[in-house]
UniProtKB/TrEMBL annotation:
Coiled coil: none annotated. Residues 12-64 form the BHLH domain. Keywords: DNA-binding, Transcription, Transcription regulation. It comes from the Eukaryota. Residues 103-113 have a biased composition (Polar residues). One of its GO terms (molecular function) is RNA polymerase II cis-regulatory region sequence-specific DNA binding. Residues 103-122 are annotated as: Disordered. This is Stem cell protein. InterPro entries: bHLH_dom, HLH_DNA-bd_sf, TAL-like. PANTHER family: PROTEIN LYL-1-LIKE ISOFORM X1-RELATED, T-CELL ACUTE LYMPHOCYTIC LEUKEMIA/STEM CELL LEUKEMIA-RELATED.
Amino acid sequence: MEISECPPQKIARRVFTNSRERWRQQNVNGAFSELRKLIPTHPPDKKLSKNEILRLAVKYINFLVTALLRQTLRLNVRVDVGMCVLFTLFSSAIMSIEAAEPANSSYSCQSGSPDHRSEWVT
């Protein structure tokens, strides 16, 4: 069926659906772009797929949580039970995600340096 044969309502619905999908896709891409800006990589402008952005974001969050917990423990600040439970749950979720990653993943986080950006190797 050609466009000239389609009823005007069908054409209008298709145009509306296409524009709504285009808007949704632009929204998703914008969110990934914002998330990408928050993930330290070397070089900083390295092109990453959406999958890589999500995986690196998870690793970076895990790194930050671990660094925060270590700093808290070093300062002998009292950590409440809720924080410990949250950290344990988060750590086990990260470990299960990392276990599902391909073995040849080229991204890793090395610990030990005070400058967290230098610890991310891509």
